[in-house]
Structures are given as structure tokens and as C-alpha cells.
Specification:
- The protein has 401 residues and is of the alpha+beta class.
- Helices cover 50% and strands 19% of the residues.
- The chain has eleven helices and twelve strands.
- Strand 9 and strand 10 form a beta hairpin.
- The chain is elongated.
- The two termini are 42 Å apart.
Amino acid sequence: MSGFLAGLCVAVLPLLAAGFWLGRRTARPENLGGLGTPVEHATFETLHTASLAAPPLRAGLTGETARKSARRLRTLLGTDALCLTDQDTVLAWDGLGEHHRTEIMERLGSPLETGRGEAFRLKCDEPDCSLRWAVVAPLTVDDRVHGALVACAPRESAVLVRAAGEVARWVSVQLELADLDQSRTRLIEAEIKALRAQISPHFIFNSLAVIASFVRTDPERARELLLEFADFTRYSFRRHGDFTTLADELHAIDHYLALVRARFGDRLSVTLQIAPEVLPVALPFLCLQPLVENAVKHGVEGKTDKSHISITAQDAGAEALVVIEDNGTGMDPDRLRRILAGEVSPSGGIGLSNVDDRLRQVYGDEYGLVIETAVGAGMKITARLPKYQPGVHSAGPLPRE
């Protein structure tokens, strides 16, 4: 991530130079809006225009995103026409001389193959067309050329060549960030699938075995557990957005614990203390359930005496504070560190490392799990959840049948 942000900063600085050139051409001292000198005004306009062009590009290079950003990019360069292309076609054209589309695509073979920009004279028989030169600046992501930015002007200009190159670099950074966003989305989806795969075999087998044990002795109890099982698995395998509410996650945990208590009986006690005001807080889907499953695995399984699990969710101002604690066997802190660092096989704790990674991805590194444990001392897991985070919104409650 830091590499991408560094690239973004590097690309913004040349935009200031482009803004200076644009300011020399367009700024008017009598209409500065209190912003100071013409150069300061041009710099502000350049950064403002760049901020408007960026959001479409963060969705990748498509016909729609190219159309939305082309006009802003042409304004940045102050040129008569500008087009954005992919490897095969002109995605968007803004300005004069759209009849040059075919000619430009025919001339893009070398820049798209080598990744080096060039300028060439345009051939035109249209008497009213003022375009005579085209400047090509390739758009690259991870050293692969995805397309080109082409600026067209009445005359050859070394300044335009440099400015077009810098703007193309800035566009390339936006496309690189779009790739990062898509990769992160694919990673989160893969991690959720991994969690579902972990839940399925072990938990489903044990749950069905418990339900089967009640079928003859207590049919009504078996029916209730079967409904708990259906509700929990329905939630776990839902396709209803990347985020959920704390209320829905706790509701699924309640179904899960009902099945666990039926299996272990009096050996397990559970207490919950939930502040009502934190129930609407949005959080990553399947974020807390793996922590509770970890408490069951290390706090109940393998023990012969009684076990206790406590779950609390408190209001902590701008955050919700969720704590899951058990009095089980605990874990060696060094082993825990290796689990969170991904240095052990998935069977050694995919739930903890998965949740820790996703919390850091969504909220930032300062929101990773805080885990206190030692061999024989149980485990206490604390998760801090901001009540508001840009982009973190629940898709709404899961429809219940």
C-alpha cells in the first residue's frame, strides 16, 4: 500500500508543474477569488480538477470511466482535444477533431508495445480542423501498458509533451490504485470463503451428530437445534455484502453457541453483556464468529472440567469495544505471534489471522486484534470497531424466512 501512495505523491507533484503551465495560459488577475497570484490560482484549479478526475479512474479503465474523466484531463492539459484508449480502441474523445480516431489508433502500435511516448504530425483534409499534432503518453500498471492518453494540439510543443507524460503518470497511479482495490476485494472474498470452508466440515458434522442424538429422546429439542443450525449456516453462507451489523453477527453467534451448548452440556457456560447502543455498528462479515469458535476450540475442547466463555460489547465513544474471553488452555505467545504472522498452516488458526488481517485492511493497522494469553491461562481477545468508517456500511439485515 505504501508503495502505491508514494507513487501517488510523486505523480501529484508534476501536476503542479502542469498547473503552472496551465496558469500561464489561462489565469486572469482580475478574477482570482481571493486566492492570491495567478500561479497560486492555477495550482488550486489544477488540484481541484485532478480531484474530480480521480474517482472515475479508481474504478479502472473502461469506456464509462474514460468518458467521465476525459474532460477533466483535457482541462488539466489545456489542449484542444484529448482521448483515452485501451489496447484496441478509443474509449473516450473530448474536444475537437474526433474524425482523427482511426488515424490515432493506427499510430499507437509502437507506444503501446514499447511503453514509450511519442509525438507525431496528424494528417487531415478537413479545412476547419485545427489539430496538427498528437502527443501519445502510455498508461502503465505494473510495467504493463493498458492504454494511452493522447493530447492533440494545433502545433508541436515540447511543454505539452512533458505535461502529457506527467498527467499520464498520474492517471497510471489511479489505475494502479484501482487494481489494488480490486485485489483487496478479491482477497477479502477469498478469506471469507476460507472461513466458510473452515466452519463447514468440523462444525457441521458435530452439530448434526448432536441433533441426531436428540431425535428419539427429545424430538422437540432436536427440532429447535435443527432450526438453530439452519439459521447459523444460512447466515454464514449468505451473499449479502462484505459488511454486517454487530446485532446480526451476535445473532449468528447465539445460534452457534446454542449448538455448542447442546454438545457440551453443563461443561460450558456462556455470559453475554451487550450495550444496546452498539448493536447498529457495521463491521466486516464473519468477523466475530471465528473468535468465538476459537474460544470454544481452546477453551472447551480437550478439557474435562467446566469452561466459561464471556462476550461483552461496550460503548467506547467513537468505537465499540468487543471482548471475547475464555478460561481454557490458552496458547504460547510465540505460537500466537506465528499464527497472526501467517507462519503456520491454516489448521493452526486461520480464524484468528483472517480476522486480524481483515480488521487491519478495513480500519488500519491500529485496529488489529489485541490478544492476551499464556499456556494454561485462557485467552482474552479484544476487537475495536469504529462506529463510522468511510466505505463500511451494512447491506441491511439478512432477510429471515
